[in-house]
Amino acid sequence: MHNGFVRINSVPTRVFTWGHFVTEKFNENIKVLVLVISGNPGLPGFYTTFCSTLYEQLNRQAVIWAVGHAGHDEPKKHMNMKVPKLKEHPHLYDLKGQTNHKLSLLEYIPPQIEKIHVVGHSVGSKIILDLLRESPEFNSKVDMCYLMFPTIEHIADSASGKWFVRLRPFFFILKLIVLLFNLLPHKLRYGMVKLYCRDMPEEFLEHCFEHTKLSVVEKILFMASDEMDKITELDEELVKQNIHKLKLYYGKKDNWVKRKYYHKIVERFPEIDAELCSRDFDHAFVLKSGEDCGEMVANWIKQR
After folding, report:
1. In this structure, are strands 246-250 and 273-276 parallel, antiparallel, or unpaired?
2. Using CA of residue 120, residue 21, residue 102, residue 241, what is the dihedral sign?
3. Would you tell me how many other CB atoms lie within 10 Å of the CB of residue 151?
4. Is 0.70 topped by the overall pTM?
5. CA distances from 106 to 76, 103, 137 (A)
6. DSSP string, 140-168
7. Hey, which residues are catalytic here?
8. In a 3-state reduction of DSSP, which class is residue 118?
9. The pLDDT value given to residue 78
10. N or C: which end of the chain has fewer CB within 10 A?
11. By C-alpha distance, which of 231, 265, 230, 268 is closest to 248?
12. Which residues is 65 bridged to in the sheet?
């Protein structure tokens, strides 16, 4: 596994890779790329167990790239990589900006790659659908898209979405709390995060700590707020045009995606490959079920 920052659509972005880093020359025998696009918050570090499992289950014969969202994972100060400010460049950080961000990442894919599998988690699934529409070249190379717990319609109507919308007027209070939190000594802040995330695997604590930066929190909330406004009606025509490239996996109990959307899409498209989870995976599956889901998705890919 390698990770590092690459400037994508003007924003320094951390990418985790297995096989070859984004800027490395690929082994000429590698023809398959698996691109994993995160949910929101978009820290690819949470996807290491999932992607490592994918890499091993695919016998290390495919390159794996995991990418988060622009501005959600900032480089350390000593790296001298300036991140464009949200107030001055909001177009880089809304839902459309995050789609453009992934379009720019596609420029790094070498021509030798013949087959691309794309895994989208939550809003990453919405971004994948938009990529299929926006980039015919990408669409032509995509073999299959695996949409995990997909927030692709009416996200604001979900249980968590409704809470988010209600709390939106009070985000200034949250930002003030984050600002005050960052004035505390580092050890105290880290201890508080560790206590709050005590049920989370130890290896994810550092990534949780990254979420406590005010500049990151602002971009996460900004993107999420735009999702509430923009992810409404399902683009049924787009689904119909790409139905042979879509595999959708819905949660049995998901506070961000109503179960009725699984039944709705199956009823609307009887031929679609959609599945309702029978293993009680959480919406944030990468935190506790990364290995199990990695094996599951790897099996789907091997069946292609």
Report:
1. parallel
2. negative
3. 26
4. yes
5. 25, 5, 10
6. HHEEEEEEES---S-GGGSHHHHHHHHHG
7. 122, 254, 283
8. strand
9. 84
10. C
11. 265
12. 17, 35
One-letter amino acid identity for 168? Answer: R
Residue 186 in tokens: 């580092």
Residue with tokens 């003030």: 176
Q: What are phi and psi of 34, to 5 degrees?
A: -110, 115
Task: Note the pLDDT tens digit of each residue in 135-148.
Answer: 998 999 999 999 99
Q: Hunting for tokens 């820290």 — which residue is that?
A: 43
Spatial strand order of the sheet with 2-8 comes to 2-8, 11-18, 63-67, 32-37, 115-121, 142-148, 246-250, 273-276
User: Could you tell me the CA-to-CA distances from 162 to 33, 60, 158, 165, 282 in Å, in that order?
Assistant: 37, 42, 6, 5, 19
pLDDT at 76 over 90: no
pLDDT tens-digit series, residues 241-266: 999 999 999 999 999 999 999 999 99
Residues 114 and 88: beta-carbon distance below 8 Å: no
d(CA 65, CA 25) in angstroms, rounded, equals 14
Count CA atoms closer than 13 A to 101's CA, side-chain side. 29
Residues 82/68/45/120 CA torsion (nearest 10 deg): -170
Spatial separation of the C-alpha atoms in residues 260 and 217, rounded to whole Å = 31
Q: What share of the chain is helix, strand, coil (3-state, %, to 5)?
A: 50, 15, 35
pLDDT (tens digit, 9 = 90+) per residue, 109-138?
998 899 999 999 999 999 999 999 999 989
Q: 113 to each of 151, 157, 263, how far by Cα in Å?
A: 28, 39, 35
Q: Output the CA angle 70-101-117, nearest 5 degrees.
A: 110
Tens of pLDDT, residues 157-196: 999 999 999 999 999 999 999 899 888 888 888 788 777 7
CA pseudo-torsion sign 119, 120, 125, 129: negative
- Which phi and psi (to 5°) does residue 269 adopt? -130, 85
Closest listed residue to residue 138, CA positions, set 99, 98, 103: 103
